[in-house]
């Protein structure tokens, strides 16, 4: 089989072990003689998967009592709207650290008053704003912890004077998180915890039910809390793959082990970017993401971009092209990206430097 060094931003690399187990489950699920996509979502075998998956989330992230983990459809993009509908009564505050954050803010503005407390749009979102003031009369403060397109990340769990809500689509399960500091955490699964098709929501139950507007049944978190994510048919295969991906994380030793692995992988690539005279990193050093590493050709080598892309492709690198809105290069180093792939990319950059300097 062809070996690809997969640096795609999402959908992206997933643990081979989890994929292989999913293949077995696609053929015969839990000894039922049926595929996991053929059994009833009301069967006891499926119910066990739902319960185990939520338990894995709670265990791995050390989620305190009083929180529920939901598995929904619609992607992180639908959460931009649901968050505002369920929590915005008077006013909401947003930190604009990229295009995803901006899209979240746009949906909130459609629901009520939403203010941007700070933005790094002035320099193409290459840093995380600091030293801003969060209005204390806002219902919540929304942040995007990892900015997938620009390669910046907030790895600190903020002490926030008002309820904190975070889009953690692209760095969930990459490090331990103090969930007690958040009212709600959400994200699409397709970057670190499974395939596309399922959206995770970790919500503090006591924070629900505080808005006066009518909430459509499917857009009301309470519906999904009350029905343990089975109000309607859940995305069964995506949840099944998520379950196997979480088991893989657990087997490796959990999030503190994963965090060390991620720090090491990102360190390897950033060190090479800083050493290699042909490349420069685009994100401010103190805000660099461990998940998405963004870089461009250095001054004097700008005309080599396409040549490097072709050179990397020939050596098995996939998905190192930067997002279409920013150009350059981006290597996504999610949990399942093996260290060997990062080493292969580093070797490729070194060889390219030797041949072109
Ligand atoms: C990918 C991504 C999204 C969009 O997720 P969908 O599931 O495709 O809607 C939102 N926020 C962040 C930070 C992302 O990386």
Give a brief description.
The chain is of the alpha/beta class and 357 residues long.
Describe this structure in words.
- The protein is α/β, with parallel strands linked by helices and 357 residues long.
- Helices cover 36% and strands 17% of the residues.
- It has helices spanning 16-27, 44-60, 75-87, 99-111, 221-226, 236-252, 255-275, 305-314, 339-356, and strands at 5-6, 67-72, 91-96, 113-119, 141-144, 146-147, 152-153, 164-167, 184-188, 199-204, 279-281, 292-297, 317-318, 329-332.
- The strands form 4 sheets. It has a 7-stranded mixed sheet with strand order 2-10-9-8-5-3-4, with helices on both faces. The protein has a 3-stranded antiparallel sheet with strand order 11-12-14, with helices on one face. Strands 1-13 form a two-stranded parallel ribbon.
- β6 (146-147) and β7 (152-153) form a beta hairpin.
- The two termini are 35 Å apart.
- Pyridoxal-5'-phosphate (PLP) is lined by residues 10, 75-77, 100, 144, 148, 167, 169-170, 188.
Main attributes of the structure:
9 helices; single chain; 357 residues; Aspartate Aminotransferase, domain 1; three-stranded antiparallel β-sheet; alpha/beta; 2 domains; 14 strands; binds pyridoxal-5'-phosphate; Aspartate Aminotransferase, domain 2
How are the secondary structure elements laid out?
Blueprint: E1 5-6, H1 16-27, H2 44-60, E2 67-72, H3 75-87, E3 91-96, H4 99-111, E4 113-119, E5 141-144, E6 146-147, E7 152-153, E8 164-167, E9 184-188, E10 199-204, H5 221-226, H6 236-252, H7 255-275, E11 279-281, E12 292-297, H8 305-314, E13 317-318, E14 329-332, H9 339-356
Parallel strand pairs: 1-13, 3-4, 3-5, 5-8, 8-9
Antiparallel strand pairs: 2-10, 6-7, 9-10, 11-12, 12-14
């Amino acid at each position: 089989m062809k070996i690809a060094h997969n640096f795609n931003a999402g959908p992206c690399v997933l643990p081979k072990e989890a994929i292989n187990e999913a293949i077995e489950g696609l053929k015969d699920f839990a000894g039922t003689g049926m595929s996991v996509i053929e059994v009833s979502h009301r069967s006891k075998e499926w119910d066990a998967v739902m319960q185990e998956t939520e338990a894995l989330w709670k265990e791995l992230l050390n989620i305190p009592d009083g929180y529920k983990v939901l598995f929904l459809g619609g992607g992180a993009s639908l959460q931009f709207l649901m968050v505002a509908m369920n929590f915005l009564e008077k006013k909401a505050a947003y930190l604009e650290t990229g295009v995803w954050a901006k899209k979240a803010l746009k949906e909130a503005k459609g629901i009520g008053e939403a203010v941007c407390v700070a933005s790094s749009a002035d320099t193409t979102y290459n840093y995380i704003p600091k030293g801003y003031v969060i209005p204390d009369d806002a219902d919540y403060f929304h942040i995007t912890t990892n900015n997938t397109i620009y390669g910046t990340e907030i790895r600190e769990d903020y002490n926030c004077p008002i309820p904190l809500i975070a889009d953690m689509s692209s760095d969930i399960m990459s490090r331990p998180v103090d969930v007690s500091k958040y009212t709600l955490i959400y994200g699409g699964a397709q970057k670190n915890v499974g395939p596309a098709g399922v959206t995770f929501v970790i919500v503090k139950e006591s924070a629900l039910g505080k808005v006066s507007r009518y909430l459509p049944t499917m857009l009301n978190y309470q519906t999904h809390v009350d029905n343990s994510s089975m109000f309607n048919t859940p995305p069964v295969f995506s949840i099944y793959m998520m379950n196997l991906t979480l088991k893989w994380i657990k087997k490796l030793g959990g999030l503190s082990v994963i965090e060390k692995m991620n720090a090491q992988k990102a360190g390897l690539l950033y060190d090479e970017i800083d050493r290699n005279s042909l490349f420069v990193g685009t994100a401010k050093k103190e805000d660099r993401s461990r998940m998405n590493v963004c870089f461009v050709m250095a001054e004097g080598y700008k005309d080599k971009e396409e040549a490097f892309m072709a050179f990397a492709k020939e050596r098995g690198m996939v998905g190192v092209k930067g997002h279409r809105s920013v150009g350059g290069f981006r290597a996504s180093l999610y949990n399942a990206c093996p260290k060997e792939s990062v080493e292969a990319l580093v070797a490729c950059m070194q060889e390219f430097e030797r041949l072109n300097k």
